[in-house]
Amino acid sequence: MISQNIDTVKRNIETVVKNCNRQAGSVKLIAVSKRFSADAILKAQQAGQELFGENYLQEAIKKYEFLGGKVKFHFIGHLQSNKAKNASRIFSMIETVSSRKLAKSLNKHLLEFEKQLDILVQVNIGKDEKKSGVYPEHTEELLRDINNLSNIRIRGLMTITPYSSNPEDSRVYFKNMFLLSEEMKSKQLFYDNNKVELSMGMSNDYHIAIEEGATSVRVGTAIFGERPPK
Ligand SMILES: *Cc1c(COP(=O)(O)O)cnc(C)c1O
Prior knowledge:
The chain is α/β, with parallel strands linked by helices. Helix content is 40%, strand content 17%. The protein contains nine helices and eight strands. Strands 7-6-5-4-3-2-1-8 form an eight-stranded parallel beta sheet. It starts with a helix and ends in a 6-residue tail after the last helix. The mean pLDDT is 97. The structure holds pyridoxal-5'-phosphate. Residues 32, 34, 55, 76, 160, 202-203, 218-222 line the site of pyridoxal-5'-phosphate.
């Protein structure tokens, strides 16, 4: 089941990539495993999936330890500054940094671990009160602040668009995220301005996110099925 779903999603990604004349392999798949077992992650790994997304720190730590640290996790949930220590230890990327306070706290622990951490800055592109993220007009200032921290590498931007049952409703937000990332790139605000990451799109709208320039998509339900309740 999981392995078939991964094949299907990967094939869909490559079809969209090809149809919009982007380079083959230029969009990464993040399998969002929140609320699914470590066993489900193992099955996905056996099917060739390398990158996973987790939303809850305690849950991610348990899975990380169960899997012997042999899994690449991106953190995609809300992170409080007082949880920065463990988060900076187990994740290969934190996609949801949207405050100077959190970035400073992460940097403090990274200095102790003598580690560099890749992050994305989360943008609240739809100015949705129910979502976290920095507002687009404050993004430049936040990027400049975080760039002063020695052990954090800003790889790009991430967003969660306002919920809608019609995936086409997300398109304008994806477009605006791409424009914002281009503007920040022109001001050289990323760690590698020749390779800026843009994480956007989920199970129901990842095809549209890719058309609008996503470099990674975060897909849960289409791989693992309906999530078990909390
Ligand atoms: C849960 C989640 C996803 C995956 O959502 P699906 O609709 O199951 O694909 C992606 N991104 C974030 C931030 C999430 O919390």
